[in-house]
Amino acid sequence: MPTSLAGDGAVALEDPRQLGRVLRPAAHQQVADTLREDVEGPLADVLSHRWRVRWERAPGRPHTARVLSDPVVHLTAEAATDETDAPAPLHGHPTPTVLLHGLVPEVFEVELPVAGVVHGLAFHPGGLSVLTGTAARAWAGRVLPAGDVLEVATTDADADDPWQPLVEAVARRHDPAAVAADAGYRLVRRAFALIEDPGVRTVEALATGLHVSARTLQRVFLHHVGAGPLWVLRRRRLQQAAAALDLGRAPDLALLSADLGYADHAHLSRDFARVVGLPPSRYRPAGPPREGDAGVGAAD
Question: Which is an annotated GO molecular function term of this record (predicted)?
Answer without folding.
Answer: sequence-specific DNA binding
